[in-house]
Design brief:
Oligomer: single chain
Shape: globular
Number of strands: 11
Largest sheet: 7 strands, mixed
Distance between the termini: 40 Å
Number of helices: 0
Strand content: over 45%
Helix content: under 10%
Order of helices and strands: EEEEEEEEEEE
Amino acid sequence: QLQLVESGGGLVQPGGSLRLSCVADGFTFDYYTIGWFRQAPGKEREGVSCISSRDGSTNYADSVKGRFTVSRDNAKNTVYLQMDSLKPEDTAVYYCAADLGWPCWLAPNYDYWGQGTQVTVSS
């Protein structure tokens, strides 16, 4: 059974950093495109970043460009989201998701989803 488990969330001060991890199990990880999404209270889920299968191409939402970096380690079945220069508006539950589509995209219509990890940016 395909599973995705996020970790690495927490409370951080503005300007700080966090690294989220998404560990996959139950499927051939290399074949899947992985997306990172977030949802703040009262808001719709939005795409943050993604990384494609095959060529590892990436995409970022304008709001996080230059601050967030996505990467994948296929040997560890893991995708990372390095988040730097965090802002209070980055506060949300962060989800990773998987899909066989290519190249990656930021619409929240991936096939498989993790349970999410909370990120809170506050002083």
